[in-house]
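**Fold in tokens:**
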Amino acid sequence: MEETLPTKPVTAPVEICDNSAILTSPIAATTITDGILHWYEADSLTAIQDSPVFNGLTLLDSTNYLVKQQDTITGCFSEFALASVYLLKQPDLTIESSNELFLLCEGEQITLSISPVLQVDSIVWYVQKTSPPNSPLVLKGTGATLVDTPAVTSKYIADVRTKDGCLYVYDQMVTVQPLPVSPELKDYTYCQFESDLTAITADSLRGNNSLLWHLADGSIDTLTTLPAPSTDVDGTFYRYVQQYNPITGCASPMDTATITIYKLPIAPFTQIVDVCEGSADTSSPIALASGILHWYESDSITAISGLPMITGASLSASKNYLVRQEDTNGCYSPFAVAPINLLEKPDIAIQAVGNKFTETNPLSWVLVMNTNVTN
């Protein structure tokens, strides 16, 4: 008696995510009570013991298996049924940024995004610092774009779930470069119209670094020393400077040099002092000021210690002293002239009036100075 062949087993396609480590088998079921399944490669010749087992790591592409069932009562085999396995390829996604080198200076912000997003269902971002070692993963946000300011070099990790339900991991290292140290500029004070000033230097300028001088008009000069300021105008002025490393392209925090230019005090008030020729009386030039007075000979070079003291007997002619005042800022006023006017001794003679002296006719005396006579 001829036995009827069993029907084909029932199969269903299997989808497996690329690179998934989860072990999976093709799907097939017998349609008879006493049936068992026999598996083969797609060539129908290579038998496979038990059910095939695979995962997304071992598969290179989608594939097919063949399966037939045997009726253990009759020993008869069914025809082959196709059991398909579809490998869901990992999408070719990249982490992108306008910063193509993913190279930052400390304190800078970076925007990361996944592209393209056509096959993407959701994205979860994590970050892991490289310092200290073995730092934990920290959740940073969700969505196609992430904006962050890493403090140190860090790995950014995107857990991407596709519309097929597969989870893939993408990562990108973002390097954070340290900033140069502050230039450490000093503050400067000058007196108005002071000259022979030295250039402004930075105490912490390193190696081949340079200074970035931010000018008031918005432009930036690159140099190693700043020119000395003009002292023509009094007031307070500022120099805004960063230290710049040309290798990393990073600049330090802004440093400020405050430049104070003090207005000069006014010249002292003076008046003429008259001194009588030959007088032994001591006199001094007159000057009035709120600051400290400094006296000089008329050559403006020879300094005089203290207030000049003179007498009529020590002078042979009128003369001028120069005087200026020093204020509390150490600034000196312009010179003022303090004149000493020598009153020359008049050329006077005593003369008698008349030529006879008697008891009843005494002589008279007069003072005669050239053409001028004083009685």
The domain at 10-88 is CATH 2.60.40 (Immunoglobulin-like).
